Amino acid sequence: MGCEQPTLRTCRCTSGHRRQRTHGRRQPRLRVCFRKGCGRRYTPRRWNQRYCQDPECLREVRRWQARQRQRRRRASPQGRQQHRQAERARRREAKARGKTPPRRSTDRARGHAGEKSSYLFCGRTGCYEPPRPSLRTPACYCTAACRTAVRRVRDRERKWLSRAKFAGQVKRRREYEAARRRCVNQSGNVRRSRDVSLPKRE
Q1: Which whole-number Å values give the CA distances from 118 to 80, 95, 125, 167, in the listed order?
Q2: R_g of the chain, CA atoms, integer Å
Q3: Which H or E element spans position 12?
Q4: Closest listed residue to residue 44, CA positions, set 26, 56, 61
Q5: Are 131 and 141 in contact (CB under 8 A)?
Q6: I need a labelling partner for 90 at 20 to 30 A (CA). Which of 26, 76, 162, 168 fits?
Q7: Domain parsing of the chain, residue ranges
Q8: Neighbours of 196 (CB within 10 A)
């Protein structure tokens, strides 16, 4: 018994010619980095890869994720209590070692202390803007652009997992057929409108 060869399927193009298409492992298409402010185009190695492999971009992603975890941890009473205990222990150790050198006014604050942002920030990776106010439910994103970007990425991953199953493939085929019919109907309507608008030559 040998390894299975990829099956060949005949599909008809729009021009009427037939071509052979190889069914093998699906490859993700070219994407744009999900982190806000990056904008690099990359070829993903995995179906759920959201970010490019630039070291600076990955560093900013990890920094944003760490700050998100810190915010969620300090939102609970237990997390705030543990943070206070850790700060007390750090101050005692610094006092036991001796006096710390005075900090200059020109020194730049490191980490999150040097940033001026609110406690809550946008749910898109790399965005530190506060969520916009909402009357009904608490908002998670600062603008509609961030919300649309997150929704697009989640929808892409959902479709990728769905199309790995037979039911998802059938649904995709029906969606493509419906889109093809809409395209044909629109092109037919455009042709009819052109025929009506153009006067006949005598």
Answers
A1: 17, 31, 16, 45
A2: 28
A3: strand 8-12
A4: 26
A5: yes
A6: 76
A7: 166-197
A8: 8
| Residues 42, 54: Cα–Cα separation, whole Å | 10
Give the Cα separation of 192 and 180 in Å (integer). 18
pLDDT at 62 over 90: yes
* C-alpha triplet 63, 67, 97: angle, nearest 5°: 90
CA 102 – CA 57 distance, rounded (Å) = 34
The pTM of the full predicted model, rounded to 2 decimals, is 0.62
Give residue 38's identity as a one-letter amino acid code.
C
Mean pLDDT of the chain: 77
pLDDT in tens, 152-186: 999 999 988 888 888 888 888 888 899 888 888 88
DSSP state of 109: P
Find the helix or strand (DSSP H, E) in which 18 lies. strand 18-22
- Sign of the four-CA dihedral 172, 173, 174, 180: positive
Q: CA-to-CA distance for 84 and 86, rounded, in angstroms?
A: 5
Tokens of 178: 């419906």
Where in 89-197 does DSSP place strands (E)? none
Among 14, 11, 19, 13, which Cα is nearest to 184's?
Answer: 14
When mean pLDDT is compared across 72-76, 103-107, 149-153, 188-192, the lowest value belongs to 103-107
Q: How many residues does the chain have?
A: 202
Q: What sign does the dihedral 132-136-138-143 (CA atoms) show? A: negative
CB atoms within 10 A of CB 199: 6
